[in-house]
Write a structure and sequence with these properties.
The protein is an alpha+beta fold. It contains three helices and six strands. The C terminus is likely disordered.
Amino acid sequence: MEREEVTLSPAEQLLAIGEIEKLFAARLRIMDTKQWDRYGSCHTEDVVSESWGAGSRVVGPEALTAAIRNTLDGDAFVTSVHHGHTPEITLTSDTTATGIWAMEDMLWWTNGDVEEHLHGYGHYHEEYRKVEGKWLISYRKLTRLRETHTPGFRSYRHAAAPTS
């Protein structure tokens, strides 16, 4: 596959990277504040997310929104805090880019009368595409380096793979 050339000026490149950073931050805020009607709008129509373990893929903004909503706002309400740090964004053309973000997430929920929690560390590996003048997420994979959690964390069905 032939790589497209980046023809944007240095100022336009910085603007594009800034727009991608704002998109990423908005997605995390929208997810943590559970604004499900806005979550899909951060993604392309053909977005692919690989965040639920080996071989698991979710395709499309509606399916992705439903999967995240079920994890964070399903049978049990999960309070979540997601942070993205130190972005490594590379423009691969004037309308495409890749990014790697160090991430940390914290999730809390009640399992019966016990408060459970997960504290995760890892990276988001993402791809972006500019569609009708707006940068959107077209691919995301979450890799985890470490998790700390309560002992009963895995016994709860939403806890089997709380990733976002």
